Amino acid sequence: MKRRDFFQMMTGGAMVAATLPRRSSATEERDPRERPNILWISCEDMSPDIGCYGDKYAVTPTLDKLAAEGVRYANVFSHAPVCAPARSGIITAMYPTTIGTHHMRCQGVPPAYVKCFPEYLRAAGYYCTNNVKTDYQFDPPLTAWDENSSKADWRGRENGQPFFCVINITTTHESQVRNHSKQMLDHIARLAPHEKHDPAKAVLPPYYPDTPIVCRDWAQYYDIMTLMDKEVADILRQLADDGLPEETIVWFWADHGRGLPRAKRWIYDSGTHVPLIIRVPQKLRKLAMPDNPDAVRPGSVNDDLIGFVDFGPTVLSLADVKVPEYMQGRPFLGSQKAPPRQYLFAARDRMDEAYDIIRAVRDTRYKYFRNFMPHLTYGQDIDYMNEMPTMQEMRRLHAEGRLVGPQKHYFLETKPIEELYDTEKDPHEVNNLSDDPQYKDVLERMRNVLLDWMKETGDVGLIPEPEFEEMKRTGGVWQKTAAPTFTAALDTRSNKVKVTIACATPGASIAYRTGNDEKGKWKLYAQSLTPGTGQVIRARACRLGFRDSEEVTFKVVEGAVALQHIAPAVEAAPHWRENLDKTDLLERLRAIKALDGSEADAIPKYLDALNDPYGSVRYWAAVGLHTVCLDSGTAERAASALKKHLDDPSPIVRIASAEALCDWGQEAEALPVLIEAMEDKSDTVRLNAVIALGHIGEKARPALPQLRAATKDSFGYVTRVVKYVLQRLEQTPA
User: Fold this and answer.
1) Which of 182, 230, 480, 609 could bridge across to 547 with cysteines, CB 3.0–4.6 Å?
2) Spatial CA neighbour of 368 closest among 358, 376, 378, 357
3) What is the DSSP letter of 18?
4) Is 106 a catalytic residue?
């Protein structure tokens, strides 16, 4: 689908049922009871470091057996190297950079046509449950799941009803690698001797120093994978106890790469390459691969490129539910199977409190990176990541000058604008080929593919977060979904009242429950209802990124219709995506970032761009001048221009200008701008202000009182940055 087409798609609230395709036309009359069950078992922070993937250090007998009974997928990659953006793309089948859920722990407002894909399954008769992690970058709507809890499984469904069940195992999370509590050590101690991993036998990637501390983390990472493997065994045992293995397609996958430095949070393969194993029962192989059922026979290996956005559409395809055209994912199984991908894409944006913008594309062999903030080091402080002993060890050895070879890469002061790796010859991605003339054609091909993808998908990553937050929610105000309304008509043939529920908010979904139980489970509204006399219907409307509506009720009294609530008409504000696509902002941003690496030749263009009507473009102009203008002559000219922007209407432009001026010795005028920005009502403006204060080092010392006060800031990421800034300033004599 062309970008202009799927961005023009509108979903009216009054036609909400029409947005939920129930099944493909080829299976319109198929009984839902004939459909396959689908079980997802997901884990966290884990690369394909499993025995069945050839890892001899791993002890994963359950997963190895599952792979022997199913298909092992060799080239599956996350589009993001951290949980929330990764899971946002999975649940919507859309790139986070398209729908605005790309920054870690942001609160996205996806376009109206975007829904959580289980809604389509529910509308088709599936029982859908999630246990229990969501992390979608927006609150999970009532309409996504029949049950979303720590007790959710397949057992609450109606007799014979097909299910889609997700069980999220958290045992392998990053935090457990460094967990040396008595409870964790007791868990590991209960492993059999052959199941424990000897740190002395750890085979480390070349970018890690080989020290006892690093090897201990590596060994515990493998120990907790063995613990997780046992949990998978328990889940599969329950499935077998219920007599369901021959009716159920089982998936096992991880949400991104291993939870260690230079893996999680980074879009190298160590952060994005994940395991995927799918077991398809014999009776369902024709359904999974209509043209070649043997492709999913036991012990198969599939080398196709598969991305996370493909997961949801593949489930819909297996369930014979039509895949909506707006989805960017492609089914790789089922009746709607698409041709294999030639390329996969990945993005890194703000990771917790640290900003960066990196994009990557890979084919089956080469991987290309574009660093859009090359002036920043790879090794920015991220408080949560710094708790890992391996990270502390790397920082200690770096400070002592004892890192060698690829180990030093993480601490380079700046990044190259481009990186290119031959992952076949260099699986750890440590030999950058971007300057090698032998790979010029590969570099240009991959560069163009990435830029075309950014353009076609409407990548919003170059919009500074404070500017984007204002686009999403003007003044920080959340929109609220309009309350549902009821329309009732008497069916003269059955003498029953037929009730239709609608919502005026475009893209809204409606949840309802019937009877007198005010705590009953919410059902997804997908077609009109026929309540009996005296029956109460309770309904709420929701939309991704909006506040839910209030609950409203409807009742049929003695054959007459009694409306207990009629919602007023609501005029929906234009969506940020709709507004953005009417402008040329993204084109202008790509153009100014094309100047990266032009050095002095770019200065006149940056100066001109300071007059751009868009604050986002002016921001990058200020950053570009700061990066390029190093000698006194060019800096003086740039400083004169940036001074005029210390009162720019855009706070992010003021911050970027002030940081540059402070760096050039003009902090008397510029530092007050950063201090003032620390009081801004916007969380992300304050975050950018304290990051800038951290960058200017000693010149931030006059702001110590304000920094100390900011340790109580309401936004946790601000307090994390402030902690590091204060550590540096207070440990250094004035």
Assistant:
1) 480
2) 358
3) G
4) no
Same domain, 588 and 689: yes
Give a yes or no: residue 338 inside a domain: no
Number of structural domains the chain divides into: 3
For residues 611 and 700, state if they share a domain: yes
- Distance, in Å, from the CA atom of 111 to the CA atom of 543, rounded to the nearest integer, reads 9
675: helix, strand or coil: helix
Helices H, strands E: what count in the chain?
25, 19
Instruction: State if pTM tops 0.70.
Output: yes
Tokens 């209960």 — which residue? Answer: 190
Q: In terms of Cα–Cα distance, which of 470, 418, 464, 416 is closest to 620? A: 464
Among residues 473, 505, 531, which one ends one of the domains?
A: 473
The closest alpha carbon to 77, from 302, 306, 252, belongs to 306
Tell whether 286 is covered by a domain.
Answer: no
What is the residue range of 489's domain? 480-563
Q: What is the mean pLDDT of each run of 10 residues along the chain (734 residues)?
A: 36 36 50 84 98 98 98 98 98 99 98 98 98 97 97 96 98 98 97 98 98 98 98 98 98 98 98 98 98 98 98 98 98 98 98 98 99 97 98 98 98 98 98 98 98 98 98 95 92 86 96 82 94 91 97 81 64 90 98 96 97 98 95 87 98 98 96 98 98 97 98 98 96 76
Give the type of residue at 53.
Answer: Y
Sheet holding 560-563, edge to edge: 523-524, 509-514, 536-542, 552-557, 560-563
Catalytic residue among 83, 165, 629, 662: 83
Pairwise CA distance, residues 234 & 232, whole Å: 5
Q: What secondary structure, in 3-state letters, does 624-661 show?
A: HHHHHCCCHHHHHHHHHHHHCCCCCCCHHHHHHHHHHH
- Flag whether 422 is in a domain: yes
Asked whether the beta carbons of 308 and 90 are under 8 A apart, the reply is: yes
In a domain, 635, yes or no: yes
d(CA 682, CA 716): 13
Structure token pair of residue 521:
């489970």
Specify whether 717 is located in the same domain as 584: yes
User: Is cis: bond before 132, omega within 30 of 0?
Assistant: yes
How far, rounded to the nearest angstrom, does the alpha carbon of residue 222 sit from its chain's CA centroid? 25
pLDDT for residue 1:
38
Residue ending a domain, among 473, 508, 538, is 473
Cα 281–chain centre separation: 31
Quick check: helix, strand or coil at residue 422? strand
Q: Strand runs (DSSP E) across 146-264, as ranges?
A: 147-148, 163-169, 248-254
Mention every residue, 6+ apart, whose C-beta is less than 8 A from residue 565.
483, 552, 553, 554
Is residue 340 helix, strand or coil? coil
Contact partners, residue 536, CB within 8 Å, separation at least 6: 514, 515, 516, 553, 554, 555
